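Hey, quick one: can you model this chain's 3D structure?
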Amino acid sequence: MLVPQDVAARARFLREEIERHNYLYYVLDEPEIPDAEYDKMFRELGRLEAEYPLLATPDSPTRRVGAAPLAEFSHLTHRVPMLSLSNAFEDEEVAAFDRRVREGLGVEVVEYAVDPKFDGLAISLIYENGILVQGATRGDGDTGEEVTTNLRTIKAIPLRLHTANPPQLLEVRGEVLILKADFEKLNRQQREKGEKEFANPRNAAAGSLRQLDPRITATRPLTFFAYGLGSVEGVNLPRKLNAVMDYLEALRVPVCRERRVVQGVEGLLDYYRMIGARREGLPYDIDGVVYKVNDLDSQERLGYVSRAPRFAVAHKFPAQEAMTELLGIDVQVGRTGALTPVARLKPVFVGGATVSNATLHNEDEIRRKDVRIGDTVIVRRAGDVIPEVVGVVPGMRHSGAQEYSLLEQYPVCPVCGSHVIRLPDEAAARCSGGLFCPAQRKQAILHFASRRAMDIEGMGDKLVDQLVDKELIHTPADLYKLGMNTLANLDRMAEKSAINTLAAIEASKNTTLARFIFALGIRNVGEATAKDLARHFGGMAALMAADEGALQQVP
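Sure thing. Here's the predicted structure for all 555 residues.
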């Protein structure tokens, strides 16, 4: 049906007004009209688009309400890798970073762009000719999950850039998060519905963005802040990062108001202390600040090392700590057989979550810290890092506190009964059973199926437990021998779940050599080393034929 000119003009006006009010409300926090007036315009636009389907453009605000659920997310390879940042925890580490930058550039003083480090989920937004066409999570840095439909539900993200001359391509990098006040409101609603509360804003944001049903994402109070760019085509941008951020702000892309430009290491540390003092009063959670060389040409000269840029660093705030009682010490048998002592704690709330277990790392650490069962200990938790026991409170030790020896307690593996050994040059004691040990077998299979390895959707702890406990699989290779009858007869595995699992196993065959090498779980071969091996040898046959000398030639 052809659209009358006056109707098309009205729809265009409504789209522009609704997006303008979205910007005023969700980005500037300066609403101009009552909610009822906004709702009236939104409903009118919806009616016009329903009557004239040609009006339903990709950048229409009505696209924010979500679409039908997805079966699964597709993967998107980033045009420019989304690298992680190196961390600094002490002032001396910041000074060392500044010294390396100055020496690398041959200058006396460096200008830095600085901003808070959001505790959210990193994403990439792709705009083509000013229209949002694609969005993805960071993933492993090279490949993320495409969550475009979910991102369109976030009202702070513009569906169309506010400019008459948009770039041919603009990739905006930023963070999806939930503001503190919105998080409290969300958990209040969860309590009223009798549903489980979220542990912290970051987990709530990540879970909300990765919903397969975008209509659920649309109900969550997500927001967004940009912190940089990826690929750019068709526009000459300023060569200073702060000016680039000003450009994004002019396009009505949300940027952080607390960003600054400072000079030298003193400027960095002054900013860190200022933001730290204001941390509790900020509307969002942060876990540190980020320092980046402001001059983009200098960034290119400095380049990258391993998986992080040389021109940037994250200065993290001290981890949150709390005291509690150490009730006992258990062990976990890991993928490589390492026995990790785990503190069983009197539950304590720290770092946004209730903690009842914390790692003690290894026996040397237990002795160095003089940790005893019954002690009052200090537990540290920072973000998603595994909670750890960082020390004891000697003045609160009672006479009944018991010393602990892992090797005396566990001369044999508690899972399979194999001998536990500790090599002279290693800190960890290990079960010698290899894949004979069900604990090692389970962890090896879980690692093989994990998102950053073979990415087998649905292959979680409970399913792997059943497969191993019932002796249905003995190595990761056995996953590819599973059939419908085997899976469908397992607990809580209906026919549909079995079909989805088999489809995920089949899909995992289409992977990269680097992911496959990483999935094998070879000791000391992480993601970066796996990529180096894949790039150097080019194929599995060449890698398997390599001797020690050939491996030493890998750059």
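One thing worth noting: The longest strand covers residues 320-333.
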